[in-house]
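Final report, Chapter 2: Outcomes

The project's central promise was a pipeline that accepts a single protein chain and returns its three-dimensional structure in a standardized token representation, suitable for archiving and comparison. That pipeline is now operational. To close this chapter, we reproduce one record exactly as it appears in the project archive, with the input sequence first and the structure output second.
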Amino acid sequence: MVKLFITALGPLLLGVLATGAQAQKIGDVSTAFQWIGPNHKIVVEAYDDPLVAGVTCYVSRARTGGIKGGLGLAEDRAEASIACRQVGPVQFKGPLPKEDEVFSERMSILFKRLRVVRMVDAPRNTLVYLTYSDKLVEGSPQNSLTAVPIDRAVPIPLKP
């Protein structure tokens, strides 16, 4: 029976573990000492917007330490903060949807994800980024929001 379970869920588990945004770790700070395994931390990571060159989002979030955290089995807390900035000339790699998930990274072994969604505020020529976490059964209403105004001389191309 166990072999059947592993055979059926193995590909699903590998798919879940293999997905996630490519982040560049900027740094971290320890928030609680753990005798065994890594300390609890706040990690700061940078994510470049894949469709908007010149915009980078910085996300800080809690990482659970200890034995479970060291093995990748812990469920991280739902709190996260985001700050997106123009870091170079803005160039769009194509028309943008009005709303699109830009990044996603797991916060637990199976069911919890940190998500970053880009929304286009066309009347103000601004990109709005929202971060939140969701869970298979119940997500968290905790969220963080940031906006990147784009020069009016560079209109944001929208998908019809």
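Archive annotation: The two ends are 50 Å apart (CA to CA).
This record, like all others produced under the grant, will remain available to the consortium after the project formally closes.
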